[in-house]
Write a structure and sequence with these properties.
By secondary structure, this protein is α/β, with parallel strands linked by helices. Helices cover 35% and strands 15% of the residues.
Length: 353
């Protein structure tokens, strides 16, 4: 049943509870929902009975309980989504007798689920925990808490955390890839993603920067792009390619001299980092959040503190072994390893009920 992980006992009846904001898997942006999809697919493959509470446009194996007809965010929903989360919670609790365990991905509403459900609840937190709502949230030390990085967990040392890094199903490396001289940046054009630092690294190194990012649509994003990013584009050789589909994005990153990921906020994890490494592409990353947990400094790429330092490390990228980077990332961040960890936690929670 497992890919060499924990010994398999009887199949479990597991409820996976996704937010109603994005489909599972998401059509485009949606890190939480990508991980929920990976979990559901692999748990189903291992023979567990998985019931997923998610939007009606989700496409997952196993039983699917529709929480909203269509995911809210792609439809342009901009109001307070509390009532949709509350409906989701009621649906899950009403079905609790059908499951051995519930796995919530609802951020702070995971805590409501723990209190309301009569069976064990595993709660994965995908976002930042250094936020006001979390200040006193974990003082009761509820069981089954999962952080996606050590950095995320350390904000609340009073809680009893299990740290489980994300894992993905990685595709094949594009066979027609020739490594070029350009840098690549994949992400949103927002201040926290560090796009200005990426442009500055391109300027300092004299390399072309190719940006794969969604064209800004929100008023705040448009204002930031027009007032801050656009004036900076003339300082370096920059191409904005728009939001690429997965094959084109993989070809862009795999052919890069390096992927630059200068996040300016404490990333709880960093899927774009492990995706680049799984293609064998070295990374230039800022020392923020969980990023140093994912990148072996001097092996997978280089960890720096600002654009100046990342530009300095650029000259050492050719010393790194892309095959070593690729093999390690695909082992450390495989979906099989992630689900092994969750299976162990599930069975521990059920046994200690």
């Amino acid at each position: 049943m497992s890919r060499g992980g924990p010994a398999a006992a009887r199949p479990l009846r597991i409820a996976q509870v996704a937010p109603p904001l994005e489909a599972v898997p998401p059509i485009a942006y949606g890190g939480t929902e990508r991980i929920v999809a990976e979990l559901v697919e692999e748990l189903h493959r291992r023979g567990h009975h998985v019931t997923t509470f998610a939007s009606g446009d989700s496409r997952i194996p196993g039983e699917h309980v529709v929480t909203v007809p269509t995911a809210l965010r792609p439809m342009g929903f901009g109001e307070d989504p509390t009532r949709f989360f509350e409906t989701t919670l009621r649906q899950v609790v009403d079905r609790a007798a059908d499951f051995d365990l519930i796995h919530g991905h609802l951020e702070r509403r995971n805590l409501d689920l723990i209190h309301a459900a009569p069976i064990p609840v595993v709660s994965t937190f995908h976002g930042r925990l250094d936020v006001p709502w979390a200040r006193d949230a974990f003082l009761e030390r509820p069981p089954g808490l999962v952080a996606i990085s050590q950095d995320q967990a350390r904000v609340h040392p009073e809680a009893d955390w299990t740290v489980i890094h994300h894992g993905l199903t990685f595709g094949e490396v594009p066979v027609d890839t020739t490594v070029g001289e350009h840098l690549s940046f994949v992400g949103r054009i927002t201040p926290e993603k560090g796009v200005l630092d990426a442009i500055e690294v391109a300027r300092l190194t004299g390399r072309e920067l190719r940006i794969a990012a969604k064209v800004p649509t929100l008023p705040t994003e448009i204002e930031y792009f027009e007032a801050v990013v656009q004036p900076a584009l003339g300082l370096a050789d920059v191409s904005i390619l728009g939001e690429l589909d997965e094959p084109d994005r993989d070809r862009l990153v795999a052919s890069s001299h390096a992927a630059i990921i200068p996040s300016a906020w404490p990333e709880p994890f960093g899927l774009v980092v492990i995706e680049a490494l799984a293609l064998g592409t070295p990374v230039l990353v800022r020392r923020s959040g969980a990023i140093p947990e994912l990148v072996r400094d001097g092996i997978d790429g280089f960890v720096g503190d600002d654009a100046q330092q990342l530009a300095y490390f650029d000259a050492r990228i050719d010393d790194l072994d892309r095959d070593t980077i690729r093999a390690s990332a695909r082992e450390r961040f495989s979906v099989g390893r992630m689900v092994d960890r969750y299976e162990t936690l599930y069975r521990s929670m059920i046994a200690g009920r």
